[in-house]
Hints:
41% of the residues lie in helices and 4% in strands. By secondary structure, it is mostly helical.
Amino acid sequence: MWAGDKSVTGAQCLVAWDAVTRPKDHGGLGIRDLGIQNSCLLLKLIHCLHTAEDSSWARWVRGHIDISSLTGDLDGAHWNDLRRLLLVYQAITIVEIGDGRSTAFWDDQ
């Protein structure tokens, strides 16, 4: 796809990555940017933690961490990524206070 070889460096790429990920109708190849796709799916997981009442996974996680900060007993690279995206999630959502368990008074909109 790039230079006809099995592995190449950036200097051998024939098409810039931003052009590859551009939609076909805008002159690109229409390949999804996996970094953006991963961030979107992680934001969906954060949303599930905050809203899914019937999810066994979300209920279990809420029992082990504080969902307003995602701090608690759970650790790992994926939790670090979720914590990094928590600020983005808080910026694009509005919280109804309800019982107050999932509301961060100083951080939520």
